[in-house]
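Take our chain:
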Amino acid sequence: MQAVEIYDTTLRDGAQGEGISFSVEDKIKIALKLDKMGFHYVEGGWPGSNPKDAAFFLRIRKYKLEQARIAAFGSTRKPGIEAAADSNLNSIIAAGAPVATIVGKTWDFHVTHALQTTLAENLNMIRESVAYLKSRGLTVFYDAEHFFDGYKANPAYALATLKAACEGGAAVCVLCDTNGGSLPWEIAGVIEQIRREISVPLGIHCHNDGELAVANTLAAVRAGAVQVQGTINGYGERCGNANLCSIIPNLTLKCGVETIPRSSLARLTELSRYVSELANMHPVAQQPFVGASAFAHKGGLHVSAILKDPRTYEHIDPELVGNRRRVLVSELSGHSNLLYKYKELNLNVHPGEETRQVLEKIKELEHRGYQFEGAEASLELLLRKACQGYREPFKLENLKIIIELKENSPVYSEAVIKLTVGNRVVHTAAEGNGPVNALDNALRKALEEFYPAIRNMQLTDYKVRVLDEKDGTGAIVRVLIETGDGECSWGTVGVSANIIEASWQALVDSIAYGLLKTQERSADPGRQQKGEQGVC
């Protein structure tokens, strides 16, 4: 069976993506996670370029990795100096990593315009840099930058750069589609030609400027590439790099090519979200394989079919990559959607007048502006309220919001709230930096005595959308709230012409749902949440 080595460059090339900045601790955590997953190589950064990357290589030495080999990145020596005198190459050696990946120019245009040196000197730079690093005991991979553009412009010279790297002792020549503008058949055709010219194994490194990085990588492997470089979630400069979260399952499950261990594939969704969390980036719901929407079904026709056989609308079993099937309930839903949801929640409901009424209510709410696709906690509470047995944890008796605005003074906000909890009435107040914050603080203050678990619940996101802008300040708004308790997270929704009322609806649902999940976990400590990692 064909096999390829997976080379992750999230910590270097991925970190060059806009808005991404990993701390040294973040980089260590990701490297260890990739090692546990069975990645073959983890590129830690460019030790000669910044103190953070140098610190990473110093710290990672303290860990005994099980499978991954750490790679240090850098460039060929500067023109006109000896390799042994080049500070960049010596920084790679000082990093102590067993693998060195060095980038060199393969496009004659770049050699003469960017490096401003001769074509012959560039060949010497490549050959001597690889040889110097190899002489110091490192395995050397040569990243042939802009290879496909260079090959189109001057095939003979682009090939000569690879031969120079081979003469220096490169273990793998990695062909880079640096501008991301090549097409799959172009990639495949060039690799097939290069394989006839050099015997050193080939790798592939694609960027996503034409949204073809994954397709180009698959084409390269089919044409004979044995090392795949990419990043988790496709993070990277401009439009990103080849997305390993798509490449790995495509190769393993569809092409019969071994990548990371099969046992690790089921943790791919977890890995994707772990890295996005450390990168402080919202996970892309529509991301193939690992996105929250990758196996989400909304249309009644689709749901009816997957209830009979999931293969009707799913190209793989989502559990193979650690994801889960989700059925959305909306104005487009049929009874199949609703029944699937009740079954998922272990609620014993049979088709009939009751379910028809619930479905009509959902459609009516969505017509008024509610949206349950991003607020499944509110949906679950709605379904439970339609069943006998659900008991609301508290009831609102009265709520007042006081806002005081004075010139040259901070805005003062206070919420005064009266609730019934069981057979007790609680009356309290709290301040906040705004009316919604004051409301949240007052609600928590009133309930913490009865439900200590509320202390663990934190509002992590708050969004407001105006639904009918033409009505100006009288417009209906939709409030979406994301809440987490350290174990999972959930979304709730509220809709009203009054933003305070909409916020209250979403806040109440967020607390009620969190208490429900806490109760379920307490009743069955060994209960495993099926589905998305970290999502209730």
About this structure: The domain at 394-450 is CATH 3.30.160 (Double Stranded RNA Binding Domain). The two ends are 39 Å apart (CA to CA).
